[in-house]
């Protein structure tokens, strides 16, 4: 030993160490051993923490429940999407040439006008041409007609009786709504709000920009509720049908739900539930993701097979009636494959 030792905050030269009693040397070695154990434990904790952070950093839609829209660019363009072959490494037999998609043609009787473009002279020598092509190339241009709101006005006259002085106003014809919109407009509002998930403001802006119709957000909400009430019976029948099927796929996801309909004064988190069968799908927006909600939607007496993830709200269904979603299992296995440390 030629270099000085730095032990327990003190510098010991070789001479000092030689002069140190054996009992003191033993005590120093014991303390050094304890320090080494503490450092090894701290190092292991840091390694575990780094592994957890790296796993969280590398999380994507292929190894977790994260939606694809939140994937990093490198995750979206990975080689795994193409079976292990990049764009330039794809085998020749699987190469595809990009073709312009063929626009389906309307039948001639559906065309408002047909223009026959017959050449008069040869493009090669200029000689006059005659006759017609029995199978000409057909090119169609599809456009929207001018959209003008169909406004029907009812003038309700108020007349005073010359006998008693009372006034009487005319009534709307039977079947005419007191609302400022008709059934077709209410249907468009429901379609935009439901299938295309547009907000009240977005629906209002679209109606104004495309149809030149000004409809307040209150009227839009009223139309949505009226259409919802109109299809209640059909939805109930679809729900009963789904609950009686042998196989049901179920899932739920967050859904923004305000208080425009005055049904969510606490502004709780909304959840969009879906029950899927080969023929019918039922969607339901509920302010809960609980076991009670799952039992209400699926039915406590459900006797078929439930295909879902491993969310705890489905645990009331017997294991003999459960099928865990394979997509979730594949993501879990992929996450295990990508782990480091002991798992690797």
Major sheet attributes: 5 strands, mixed
List segments where confidence is low: pLDDT < 50 over at least 5 consecutive residues. 77-86
- Rough outline: extended
Question: What share of residues are in beta strands?
Answer: 5-15%
Task: Explain what you see.
With 344 residues, this protein is of the alpha/beta class. The chain has helices at 14-19, 22-57, 73-76, 183-194, 200-211, 217-230, 232-243, 291-298, 326-337; strands spanning 5-7, 10-12, 158-160, 167-169, 247-255, 270-276, 281-286, 305-308, 322-324. Strands 7-6-5-8-9 form a 5-stranded mixed beta sheet. The longest helix is centred in the first third of the chain and has 36 residues, at 22-57.
């Amino acid at each position: 030993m030629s270099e000085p030792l730095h032990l327990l905050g003190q510098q010991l030269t070789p001479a000092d160490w030689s002069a140190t009693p054996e009992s003191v040397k033993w005590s120093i070695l014991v303390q050094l051993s304890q320090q080494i154990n503490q450092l090894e434990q701290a190092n292991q904790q840091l390694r575990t923490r780094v592994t957890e952070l790296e796993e969280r950093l590398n999380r994507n839609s292929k190894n977790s429940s994260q939606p694809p829209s939140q994937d990093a660019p490198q995750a979206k363009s990975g080689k795994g999407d193409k079976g292990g072959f990049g764009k330039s490494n794809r085998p020749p037999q699987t190469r595809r040439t990009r073709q312009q998609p063929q626009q389906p043609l309307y039948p001639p009787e559906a065309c408002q006008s047909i223009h026959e473009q017959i050449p008069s002279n040869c493009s090669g020598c200029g000689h006059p041409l005659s006759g017609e092509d029995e199978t000409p190339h057909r090119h169609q241009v599809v456009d929207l007609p001018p959209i003008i709101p169909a406004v029907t006005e009812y003038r309700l006259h108020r007349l005073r009786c010359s006998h008693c002085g009372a006034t009487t106003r005319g009534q709307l014809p039977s079947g005419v709504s007191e609302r400022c919109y008709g059934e077709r407009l209410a249907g468009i509002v429901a379609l935009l709000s439901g299938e295309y998930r547009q907000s009240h403001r977005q629906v209002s802006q679209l109606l104004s920009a495309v149809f030149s119709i000004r409809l307040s957000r209150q009227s839009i909400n009223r139309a949505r509720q009226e259409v919802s009430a109109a299809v209640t019976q059909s939805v109930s029948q679809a729900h009963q049908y789904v609950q009686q099927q042998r196989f049901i796929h179920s899932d739920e996801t967050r859904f923004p739900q305000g208080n425009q309909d005055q049904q969510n004064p606490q502004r709780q988190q909304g959840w969009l539930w879906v029950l899927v069968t080969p023929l019918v799908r039922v969607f339901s927006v509920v302010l809960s993701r609980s076991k009670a909600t799952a039992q209400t939607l699926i039915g406590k007496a459900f006797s078929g097979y439930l295909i879902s993830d491993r969310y705890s709200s489905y645990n009331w269904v017997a294991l003999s009636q459960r099928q865990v979603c394979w997509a979730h299992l594949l993501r879990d296995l992929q996450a295990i494959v990508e782990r480091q440390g002991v798992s690797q």
